[in-house]
Amino acid sequence: MGLNVGQAIGIGVVAGFVGAFILVWFIPRTPTIQIVQEGGLVHTRPETPQHLREMNRREADPRIDSVRWFSVRMIPLMSDREIAEAVEFERDIKRFAEMCIEAPFRPQPPVPESLFDENELVRLAGKPINGGTWSASISNTATRASAVKCFLAQFVFKRIHPNCPPQDCLLPPEVASCYQLINVPHNNPGRDDLLGIWRELVFTLLLDPFALLPLPPGCFKEGDPRKERTLAMVPVIIDALHLKSLRNDRVRQEDDTIERPITGILMTSANSALHLLAQPSEWEAVWEANEPGFIVFPELRFVWNSFTKFLKPAVVDVDTLRPIPSDDNRQAGNNKHADDKQYPEVGAPDQPNIDTEKLPSLEDGQSLTQGIGQESSPSTANR
After folding, report:
1. Quick check: 217 and 91 in contact, CB under 8 A?
2. d(CA 368, CA 300)
3. Please, are residues 263 and 231 in contact by the beta-carbon 8 Å criterion?
């Protein structure tokens, strides 16, 4: 009786295993070190001098020795244009200030310095990096537009950094909390690279599964869980800056012309925070500039183990000087009648300043700010 194909293959496999086992079993087990009889010639390698061994031993350079090379990273930002696209909210802030604050051929409305709550402004954005106070720079028409842009930039950069408290951060709370939990001080360069890989993986999980490349930062999609807590910051900013009193646009009757741009700035900033988090290098905003003027947007640096690999220079308004100049008296005189209707103390230096609580805009702003801050705003929850 003959064998079919399946039986022949099975017998061949079994015979092969048995043959291999017998071959391994009967191989003579000889020591790997040759035993030299006494008096025989022993060939030894000359010992390497100590100074040559030290030269051949190269210490790992944390700037270049990493788990993965920078050329195969996922989305490195290496040029000024790419970095500028990642922080698209800077362009949105500039466009908003040009549209609502410094509209051409229209005089800016004068407002008193006492209109603003300096403590609230400092709490939201920190101390002004250009010196002085927020109240003085915003009430001054010569520096108002630059001060508003700088305030919004400081507010955003403070909240897109992963070290920001999770309740105030524009990153998802779980991402910011996990980052702060694993990002502890250490002296192991390899851990920095592993942390960078973790940031990239988090960004990959948050991307659209059908997207081949990461989309540029933009507004939230429908049903984004970050939308509610991010939009809660919009009225807080509007009331702290009193933008309804500062606005200089032509469509003053529409409140949406203020809320919509601020909403877009915050949503774009939240998505930019994810793009910056996913970089191989840690990023930092440095409020320094080589040229004189009013710093509007900071210098953005991407640092790898204290080594700056890429940077975007700061944006400076050279037309606005530091220290902050005073308002032009002629402008205050030309707008005297309009000022008396809205703010009686403007143009009347002999009269004492009116209590700020009597101003309708200030009273409404304070009550709205406090109510929102206690109920819906994540940035004022622990106030």
Report:
1. no
2. 34
3. yes
Task: Count the residues in the chain.
Answer: 383
Estimate to the nearest angstrom the gap between the alpha carbon of 291 and the chain centroid: 24
Domain presence at residue 294: yes
Question: Model pTM?
Answer: 0.64
Buried b (16+ CB within 10 A) or exposed e, 227-236: bebbbbbbbb
Tokens read off for 248 = 């200089």
The gap between the terminal CA atoms of the chain, to the nearest Å, is 93
> How much is the pLDDT for 112?
92
Q: Which residue has the tokens 């406090």?
A: 370
pLDDT, tens only, 124-169 = 999 999 988 999 999 998 889 999 999 999 999 999 998 899 888 9
**Half-sphere exposure at residue 148, Cβ-oriented, CA atoms within 13 angstroms:** 30
| Structural domain boundaries enclosing 112 | 70-380
CB neighbours of 27 closer than 8 A, spacing ≥ 6? none
- How many structural domains are present in the chain? 1
DSSP per-residue letters across 195-220:
HHHHHHHHHHHHS-TT-SSPPPS-PP
Is 2 within the bounds of a domain?
no
380 contacts: CB under 8 Å, gap ≥ 6: 123, 236, 369, 372, 373, 374
Is residue 47 in a domain? no
Radius of gyration of the CA atoms of the chain, in A: 33
In a domain, 208, yes or no: yes
- Partnered with residue 308 across adjacent β-strands are 303
Q: Report yes or no: 192 and 62 within 8 Å, Cβ to Cβ.
A: yes
User: By percentage, how much of the chain surpasses pLDDT 70?
Assistant: 56
- Residue of 342, 285, 349, 289 lying closest to 314 (CA atoms): 289
Mean pLDDT, 10 residues at a time, over the chain (383 residues)? 65 72 61 54 60 54 48 53 80 90 81 93 93 91 91 95 90 86 67 70 67 64 82 92 83 69 92 82 87 90 77 86 50 42 39 39 34 37 37
Select from 124, 90, 137, 75 the least CA-distant residue to 313. 90
- Side-by-side strand order, sheet with 282-286: 282-286, 299-304, 307-312
Note the pLDDT tens digit of each residue in 279-319.
Answer: 777 888 999 888 888 999 999 988 776 777 778 889 999 88
| Residues in Cβ contact with 199 at an 8 Å cutoff, skipping those fewer than 6 apart | 179, 277, 278, 279
